[in-house]
Amino acid sequence: MTGNQRAITEDQRQQAKLIWDYHQMHHQVGPCDVAIGLGSHDLGVPAFCARLYRAGLFPALVFTGGPNPTAPERFPRGEAVHFREHAIALGVPEQAILLEPKARNTGQNITFSREVLAATGMMPERVLLVSMPYMERRSFATARKMWPEAEVICASEPLEFDDYLKSIGDEKLVTDDLQRLIEYPKLGFAIEQDVPEDVHAAFETLIRDGFTSRLIS
Description:
Pfam families: DUF218
Shape: globular
Radius of gyration: 17 Å
Number of helices: 8
Number of strands: 5
Domain DUF218: 49-149
Strand content: 5-15%
Protein name: YdcF family protein
Oligomer: single chain
Structural class: alpha/beta
Strand order of the largest sheet: 3-2-1-4-5
Order of helices and strands: HEHEHEHEHEHHH
Largest sheet: 5 strands, parallel
C-alpha cells in the first residue's frame, strides 16, 4: 500500500479476498488460436502473456489499450505499446504481436482487438484473454457479450491475494470491479454473472467501510 492509505483490518482483508476469489474463473488454459492481453496498469499481464507464448500455447498475440484513464503517467505512450515492449524484452518475437492502441475500456479491448485480427485475415475460434487477476470474470462476461461465437478462456498471472496487494498497492480495486460486473449487464456491456450472497454481502460491507474511491456513480 502507498503511504497515504490506511491499513485494512483483517476482517476487511477477508472480505476483499472473498471477492478476489470470485473474480477468478479457474479456466483450464490450453492451446488457443490467439491471445489478447487486455490493457491495464499491470505489467504482470504482458509478462504472463510472454510466459504462455514461450510455452507454445498460441501463435499470435494482441495487446490492446490506449492511455490508462486513471494513471496516464504510468504508460504515457499507451498500455498496448508498453505491453508490447515488455513482452518483446521477455522473448516474444515482434512479428508475433499485433497492436491495438485505442481502446479505453474492456468492451473496446474486445471489439477493437477482434477488428485488428479480422484485418489480418484471422478469425479465431478459441481466444485466450489475459487480464489482471481481479478482472478475469468481467473480461469473460464482456467477451461473451461482444464476441459470442468465440470460445473464451480467461487467465491471469497466478498470484495469491496478499502477494498481489503488495504488488499493486490498492485493495479497493477488487470492489470497483465487482460493481462493474454487476452494473454493466444492465447497460448491455456484458452478460450477467451470478453473484453469490456471501460475495455480495462482502461487497456491501466494504462499501460501508469506505472502499468507495473508485466506484462508478
